[in-house]
Design goal:
Layout: E1 11-26, E2 32-33, E3 40-41, E4 46-51, E5 55-59, H1 61-65, E6 83-84, E7 89-93, E8 99-102, E9 107-113, E10 116-121, E11 125-129, E12 134-140, E13 144-155, E14 158-159, E15 163-170, E16 192-198, H2 201-210, E17 214-220, H3 225-228, E18 234-241, H4 248-256, E19 261-265, E20 272-276, E21 299-302, E22 311-317, E23 322-323, E24 329-330, E25 332-337, E26 342-346, E27 350-354
């Protein structure tokens, strides 16, 4: 945040009801890109894959066959760098009774150390799914693709770092309503659900038992953050940690999108909620949110107490520095909150909701 003589800048959160959205889907390391440029993609489709990074396992071959560390190398049937298969003999001791040590897994002989064979192995593939529905508009060789779609986009403030997609079901008609057990039933299985606040562990565990794919909420109490990270579904918080309600512009957008395909991208630098356009309509131009310039009429959210989490509208920009009740001097604006109260808020404590 900075201030100059002409424009006053604030923090910003994108809440876009109609936009052309581009989502990058990339592998964590080099691999194979499967999707093609121009291809229509569904959320479940795998767009790229790469082998998992190798794990290591030490096989105590000398100890297992009761031979000395000095002599075990002459009995080896493999050498460093060799590919090995499960059941393949690795070491054989001939004598009155021939003894063998066979490999318990597939892999590569990475090292020979102190009577042990160090085997590097892989357990499978890392696969990246599209998560959103759209069209592949570009490919990054060996890494991934960029997918374009028309729809809505909401930036969150916190997530469990998971990803999910499913049809949206909004459970709360007010942003202050907490998730409650009576709102949950088996019909919500495989859905993304949205509510005002998360204050109790019981409905969160019930949602896991039902089999929801994801959850959107305005706020979550601090004591629940570590708990939801262990639940099997994705969670994105739009407003903050505490008891604040979901901002009205965000709630309205979600209510308008009820039943539509919704994607939760919790692994972004800032978590995002992407809602695909229900009619497949085309937005004529890419919508890039403008800079968060404070101006009269701008919808904002307050980031500090005593009005933390409340939303309102800027009704006046102060050109001169103002003295706050606590004695601090600051540049800021007069904000009319949803309850019609008018308060002065420093620019540093404002979050512009950009549509």
């Amino acid at each position: 945040m900075w201030v100059d003589k002409v424009k006053q800048y604030t923090h910003s959160t994108a809440v876009q009801a109609a936009a052309m959205i581009r989502v990058e889907r990339m592998l964590p390391s080099k691999g194979k890109v499967i999707a093609r440029t121009g291809q229509a993609i569904s959320p479940a489709q795998i767009i790229a894959r790469t082998p998992e990074r190798g794990n290591f396992r030490a096989l105590p071959v000398a100890k297992a066959l009761g031979i000395s560390l000095k002599s075990f190398k002459k009995h080896l049937l493999v050498k460093k760098g060799d590919r090995i298969k499960e059941g393949m003999p690795l070491l054989r001791v001939k004598g009155f009774r021939t003894r063998e040590y066979t490999s318990p897994l597939d892999g590569r002989l990475y090292d020979i150390n102190n009577g042990r064979l160090i085997v590097q192995y892989r357990t499978g593939w890392i696969e990246v799914r599209a998560i959103v529905a759209g069209k592949v508009v570009s490919r990054t060789p060996e890494r991934g693709v960029t997918i374009e779609l028309s729809g809505s986009r909401i930036e969150g403030v916190w997530s469990t770092q998971r990803e999910a997609f499913g049809n949206l079901k909004v459970l709360s008609h007010k942003g202050s309503m907490p998730l409650a057990p009576f709102q949950l039933n088996d019909d919500l299985a495989d859905h993304i659900i949205a509510t005002g606040r998360l204050t109790d562990i019981k409905p969160l565990e019930m949602a896991a038992d039902i089999g929801i794919r994801g959850l959107i909420a305005g706020s979550i109490t601090a004591d629940l953050t570590s708990i939801v990270k262990r639940l099997p579904y994705a969670v994105i918080i739009t407003d903050g940690i505490g008891h604040q309600p979901m901002a009205e512009p965000i709630l309205q957008l979600l209510q308008n999108a009820d039943t539509q395909l919704t994607s939760l991208l919790g692994q972004q630098p800032r978590p995002e909620i992407i809602i695909a356009s229900s009619d497949g309509g085309v937005v004529t131009a890419t919508h890039t949110p403008p800079p968060a310039i404070a101006e009269a009429g701008q919808i904002v959210r307050v980031l500090q107490a005593p009005y933390y989490g409340k939303t309102g509208k800027i009704i006046k920009i102060y050109d001169k520095i103002q003295r706050m009740p606590i004695g601090i001097m600051a540049y800021g604006a007069a904000v009319q909150l949803e309850d019609e109260q008018i308060v002065f808020v420093p620019y540093a404590n404002l979050d512009a909701i950009i549509g």
